[in-house]
Amino acid sequence: MLHRFLALCLGVFVALPATAAPLVIFAAASLQGPLDDAVAGWEAETGGEVVISYAGTSALARQIDAGAPADLFISASADWMDWLETAGGIDPETRVDLLGNALVIVGRGDPVAPIEALPARLGDGLVALALTETVPAGVYARAALEALGLWGPLKGHIVETDNVRAALTLADLGEVEMAVVYRSDATAAPDLAILATFPHDSHPQITYPAAVTSQSTTAETAASLLDWLRGEQAGAIFLAAGFDVKGAQ
User: Fold this and answer.
1) 72, 97, 201, 234: which has the fewest Cβ within 10 Å?
2) Region for residue 109 given its phi and psi (left: phi exceeds 0; alpha: psi -120 to 50; beta: otherwise)
3) Residue 227: which pLDDT band, with cuts at 50, 70 and 90?
4) What does 52-121 look like in DSSP terms, one character per residue?
């Protein structure tokens, strides 16, 4: 204490140890909630700090490619992770398939059965989807609707949103009659019910790959967090939220 006082008297600034910067995760919007809970467990166990930025996978991948300071990327699409890997944005040695999911229709009222009865059930109503050209949930939804012959009948009733949680919100608020979302999203809107589940073979497999970014300045810590997210404690959180767990350690 005396040394610090003397240094200040002499006009010398004593450098104090810098606080470690928080780890930054860029994650698909559909992970919001369960990923927060899982990361909180890692923070409690390690004393580390994490900041999570949620958005549509395509937007996050482009931001990382443009130099956004992310340490870990969790995508809702293998294609976008492939794209970022080709661009040199991730460390391919750290890439793993973390989670899986299913595609469902949510809304209020009785189940839609068979799913081909959706246009008749919807009537003049609207159905919300994530962007069908770029956002994984929207891409999967369009693929499923086309495979079942429903895209044409429903095209004039579709409202596209920036990400899957925005589609869920429109249905939850009653702005649209239904939304096509991931099974895990349904747990975030208790007032909505799963009205139908799309056949797994009607759309590409839903996979959430994760990887440490190439530009991470805390790559070892980010890899440690990713390992923890593949473990039993985090896996239980994801399972309870409606995800499938892949490659758990």
Assistant:
1) 201
2) left
3) very high
4) EEEE-HHHHHHHHHTT---SEEE-S-HHHHHHHHHTT-B-GGG-EEEEE--EEEEESSS--SSGGGHHHH
Q: What is the DSSP string of 180-239?
A: EEEGGGGGG-TTSEEEEE--GGGS---EEEEEEBTT-S-HHHHHHHHHHHTSHHHHHHHH
In whole angstroms, give the CA distance from residue 14 to residue 26: 36
Domains and CATH numbers, the chain: 23-100+207-245 (3.40.190.10), 103-202 (3.40.190.10)
DSSP assignment, residue 142? H
**Coil vs helix vs strand at 149:** coil
Q: Which of 211, 208, 214 is nearest to 227 (CA)?
A: 211
Q: For the full predicted model, state whether its pTM sits above 0.85.
A: no
Sheet holding 178-182, edge to edge: 158-161, 127-130, 178-182, 103-107, 193-197
Q: How many CB atoms are located within 10 Å of the residue 153 CB? A: 14
